[in-house]
Amino acid sequence: MRLHRSIGAVITAVGVAALVVGCSSAGAGSTSNAKSSNRTVVTGAKACTQYGKNITMKVGFSESGATIEDGFKSIVSSFEKANPTVKIDVQAKDFSSSLQTIKLAMSSNNPPDLMQGNEGWSIDGALWQANLLLNLDPYAKAYGWDSKFPQSALTVNEFSKDGKTFGSGSLTGLPQGIQYVGVFYNKANLAKIGITDPSTLDNKDAFLAALDKSKQAGITPVMLGDSEKNYALHNISLFNGWYVTPDKINDWVFNKPGSTYDDAGHIKGATDMQDWMKKGYFNSDALATSFNDATARFGKGESTFFITGTWALGDVEKALGSNAGFMLFPAGDTGIHEAVGGYSLPYTISSKTKYPDCAASFLNYITTSDAAVQAQIAAGRPSATVAGLDAPVKDPLLQQMVTQYKKLNADNGLFTWEDWPTPTMLTYSGSQAQLLIGGKLTPKQYAASLQKNWSDYMKTKK
Questions:
Q1: How do the pLDDT tens digits run along the chain, 462 residues long?
Q2: CA-based nearest residue to 377, from 363, 395, 362
Q3: Can you name the residues that pair with 92 across neighbouring β-strands?
Q4: Strands 158-159 and 220-223, how do they pair?
Q5: Helices 425-437 and 232-243, interaxial angle, to 10°?
Q6: Pair 99, 337: CB distance under 8 Å
Q7: Which domains are delineated in the chain?
Q8: Contact 79, 109 (CB under 8 A)
């Protein structure tokens, strides 16, 4: 799957080349040496037993979807069986709740030993700048992560030691799985509107016609849940992909000077998002509906389509069974299939942990072990590792997702999350998107406001 390598190439092209990681040695438990690459690493059984017979590590979990959470807890149990001196305390929150508390939790005197954060400046970048994350470079060398993961999976989790550059420098986290945003559909509802071959929807005009047919049949065309003020951004990004190339989007995300969001393509994308709400393509209560409720309602047959990330695959399949299908968002004016995504939320290690080697051993296990690869497949997504890309998949819906993923790769159509480029972009753009969808901002005002946030941040980097 070429995608993983192509992201890295794009990042390098915009001037944030990956840094080769090296070995190291310093103690943890203090933020003063968090970014040090001087650390003596202990691996194997002693990675955990060196700390005593009974230790407990707290792990913050914040991914969407009950299936993914169940899968994570299963692999935690597997690690505990292999390491009987260790107990893992999983502290699970939904993503939006975690966003509100993660910085406070990680800066406390007793933070989680590992935390699932988010790539980019808003979460992991801010924690790195505050010396709250452990430099993982020595562990990358000790465990061979540079060969176990595609370079792009590492690059999007790297920051420079001075905290000014994203996309190069020291490794701060690792993802478990691959994920991107596409279109789930309900085959039974498609049949009700006369569509028995979903492949015919891989065309912008045909897809829009299906939305109209669904509405005319009294079925909500697209389910959306954005009460958390971030999931609508994924839909907007797909609209942007109709008019803006992946390279231009990535340039802006990775702070390339001269990049802009305030252009004709992004304004068209914002216009489509607003128009879909006006036309009744989305459920009328989208802004007050949570992501979990939207997933459940789609699973109950309330809409024909659900445009969201592949993290919902397990829950959708549980609800709809063989009636569930998945496709890419149809190609737009750029002529290629485009999608926003890449990797799942990364796990980082607190600079204050008393058990750095054991935490790194756990991180290695939940991401690279054979059990981890199978756990990701069971959760409805491929593992982010090199080995995981070619692991056998039997589940029909996951096979469909992987096939569509290969099509996306063939088009070189993947671009990164547009909430990454500034420390405040995630929360700011999420709030602005609600104003856009609610008709309180024009598409031009929306695009200009995001560009101002970006430009103001760029001034601080000089």
A1: 233 333 443 443 333 332 222 333 333 444 545 666 677 899 999 999 999 999 999 999 988 778 889 889 999 999 999 999 999 999 988 777 877 889 999 999 999 999 999 998 989 999 999 999 999 999 999 999 999 998 889 999 999 999 888 889 999 999 999 999 999 999 999 999 999 999 999 999 999 999 999 999 999 999 999 999 999 999 999 999 999 999 999 999 999 999 999 999 999 999 999 999 999 999 999 999 999 999 999 999 999 999 999 999 999 999 999 999 999 999 999 889 999 998 999 999 999 999 999 999 999 999 999 999 999 998 888 899 988 878 899 999 999 998 898 889 888 899 999 999 999 999 999 999 999 999 999 999 999 999 999 999 999 987
A2: 395
A3: 61
A4: unpaired
A5: 80
A6: no
A7: 3-177+344-390 (3.40.190.10), 179-342+403-460 (3.40.190.10)
A8: no
Q: Do the beta carbons of residue 443 and residue 274 sit within 8 Å?
A: yes
The phi and psi torsions of 326 (rounded to 5 degrees) equal -145, 140
Contact 232, 226 (CB under 8 A): yes
Q: Are 221 and 304 in contact (CB under 8 A)?
A: yes
Number of Cβ within 10 Å of residue 162's Cβ equals: 9
- Tokens standing for 429? 């753009």
The residues near 335 (Cβ < 8 Å, ≥ 6 apart) are none
Lookup: tokens for 131: 């010396």
- Rounded to an integer, what distance in angstroms lies between the CA atom of residue 293 and that of residue 304? 15
Contact by Cβ (8 Å): 241, 332: yes
Strands 178-186 and 303-309: antiparallel
> CA 214 to CA 201: how far, in whole Å?
13
Element (H, E) at 91: strand 86-92
From CA 158, how far away is CA 18, in angstroms rounded?
Answer: 8
Round to whole Å and give the CA distance between 112 and 115: 6
Supply the pTM of this predicted model.
0.82
Q: Which helix (H) or strand (E) holds 104?
A: helix 95-107
Task: Give the CB-side neighbour count of residue 221, counting CA atoms within 13 A.
Answer: 17
Give the E-state strand segments of 139-218 in sequence order: 158-159, 170-171, 178-186
